[in-house]
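Re: that chain you flagged

S.,

Sorry for the slow reply, it's been a week of failed gels. I finally had a moment to sit down with the sequence you sent. For the record, here it is as I used it:
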Amino acid sequence: MKNSSKRFKTIFIALIILFTGFGSSNAQPLWNTMKKENTVLKVSAWFTAQEVNKYLSTGAGLDDAIKWCKQYGITKVHLEAFGRGLYAKKEILIAARDKFLKEGFEVSSGVTTTQFGKNAVNGGDGVVEWTGSQCYTNKETQAELQRLIEYTASMFDEIILDDWFFTQCQCDECIRARGDMTWAKYYTTLMDKMSRERVVGPAHAINPKVKVIIKYPQWYDEYHIRGYDVVGEPAIFDGIWIGTEDRNFEYDKDKIGYEIGYNAYFNMRWLATLGKVGGGGWFDTGGDRTKVNTYIEQARHTVLGGGSNMILWSYSGHVASPLKMEALSKELPALIKLAKIVQARPIKGVSLVKPGNSDPFEEEWICSFLGELGIPFVPASKVDEQAKSVVFPVQVLKDTDIVAKFGRMANKGTPIVITDGFAKRFAVHIAYLNNANVSVLPVNGSPKTLLNIPRQQIKFYRDKLLAPFGLKFDAPAKVELYLFGDDTFVVENINDESVDVSLDFQHVASVAKILTLPEDNANATLSQTGNSVKLHISPHTLVAVSYK
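Prediction finished late last night. Pasting the structure tokens below so you have them in one place:
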């Protein structure tokens, strides 16, 4: 039965590729466009080790994959050499690599570090249990990690580590090795050592030309408790990549905030302050938890975050999601326009500070929800005392000099909004909290409740923060505002209903819509009365506006 099921799935994939090719007259022209605009925006496809062995082992399978990639404007492929306990066969990897190169594709590789060596034993200490990570204290695991990296580096000049390069093991071996360190300290120290001695060093020894890139997942508030050291690791690797997956955020069901739209933008911009971003984001189809609208918003947030490359994970899942792929390919020309707008201008706005490896306490994922309040943020990992205005969530208490910095900023008139979690832990500094430039935002231990703040209350905080920029913005929650340079703003409505918003300037001579996404059926009407700009925006719509 298993063999029959596998044959059926293979035939199903082939039929999807065959029939989705019919009627797609723009397939090759789209690929040509993406090749031409390759430095602005690139779409890549990830083939897991299982998919490499299954779909790329024959000439017909390779031809199907090439046809599908060209149809949807994909100009780069990542052929995973190891993942989920399986080594892709060397002869298949080399043949596929050479075939894709001959067809004009860029070719890279990757590894997913799961199901090898000793499996992690999950423990407590607040660690969320994720089945599939490894015990890197174990010497056999370390040796196998090095072997799979050397295997990959022998064939490819670029390797991305998928976001399973972490640990939460609390086996007896780890307990003994930890000593009196916290688990977070032990994990980050251990994974830094693995990165240097078992990954990057051996890869460069095998292939001096190879670039080794670490991909970080969406969960920025939990990196350090699983061994991702975003303060130390970026300097070890040749680049970093960012997970930009979104899901349909259902308020009554969802507790995790890293799946709401703004998270992707925040994570990309924030991590860029800690290391060299290798080019972009990474998202999947999301299955039933990601509608077509949400799937497309993953791509938009990746571009808004400064990404110039979007990796689609993975091949078979996207082949089996033709509606999402058709929507993405339809929007790609407009996403190129958006990328050109974004890449030509610096981001402006309110400083939103989260130090690397900082604990969230009861405000986990708060940065994702703050961005849904229509405040244009510049994500930061350090306190900038020259910032025009700033938001301090509880994570900022990681900064050992925060008391002095806070006092200097408040006393010179910088508008500061702090969360009640920050205020509670800062209570001994009552004079600073009572400063007229300081406002406290009620989070009440549940960041997602920010989405329920009444529109007028949101406006109170937003107006204070935007005053130094000469702006006022009025909108409900789940409407995002981005400022690019001195002449462009972007508003994205991720609500399921239309919204009316306004942006008031101290002085504006003229405004003009320069882009609306989606281009074919979105409704975004723009009007200007004096220095006030009004927009009516349909659901799941992005509009970019230039002004003078």
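What I noticed first: The chain has 18 helices and 23 strands.

Talk soon,
D.
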